[in-house]
Amino acid sequence: SFSDDYFDAIIAISTVEHIGLSGRYGIAEDSSGDRKALAEMKRIVKPNGSILITVPFGKAKILKPFCRIYDCALIGQLVDGLIIDKEEYYMQNVNDDWHKCQKEEAESAESTIYKSPICLLRLLKK
Q: I need a labelling partner for 115 at 20 to 30 A (CA). Which of 1, 16, 29, 47 fits?
């Protein structure tokens, strides 16, 4: 119920990938729930405002009832109408330590409910 252009910045860490997936969080299934959430963030952030998000990244799939895994194509659909100002990718090594990696390395990874590369995005409203 926030008005248009209300916030200077919005942060959604490890959140968007769960929105609209039924079974774990007591919500109804909505296959476009994640995109609707980003559209709402876009509506309530001020012009030139920032939206910071993280999402699991790799070979696209849905790990029901836990989360979505995004690839480049799904990221494009998710952030439609926003500018990707900055993007970074991280994955865990064999010791579970996080390290920065290239997008291509992250996107080729097979994700599980326990381990997945992460995409960090700073989005700007046009």
A: 29
Name the nearest CA neighbour of 105 among 57, 49, 69: 57
d(CA 70, CA 111): 10
The residue ranges of DSSP E strands in 1-126, in sequence order, are 7-13, 45-56, 61-63, 67-69, 82-92, 98-101, 118-125
Burial label, 27 (beta-carbon count in 10 A; 0-12, 13-18, 19+): middle
Q: What's the CA gap between 79 and 125, in Å, rounded?
A: 10
- Answer yes or no: are the C-beta atoms of 119 and 54 closer than 8 Å: yes
> Model confidence over 19-71: pLDDT tens digits?
999 987 788 899 999 999 999 999 999 999 999 999 999 999 999 999 999 99
Give the pTM.
0.93
Find out whether 69 and 62 touch, Cβ atoms under 8 Å.
Answer: yes
Q: Are 117 and 56 in contact (CB under 8 A)?
A: yes
- Please state, in angstroms and rounded to a whole number, the distance separating the CA atoms of residues 79 and 91: 22
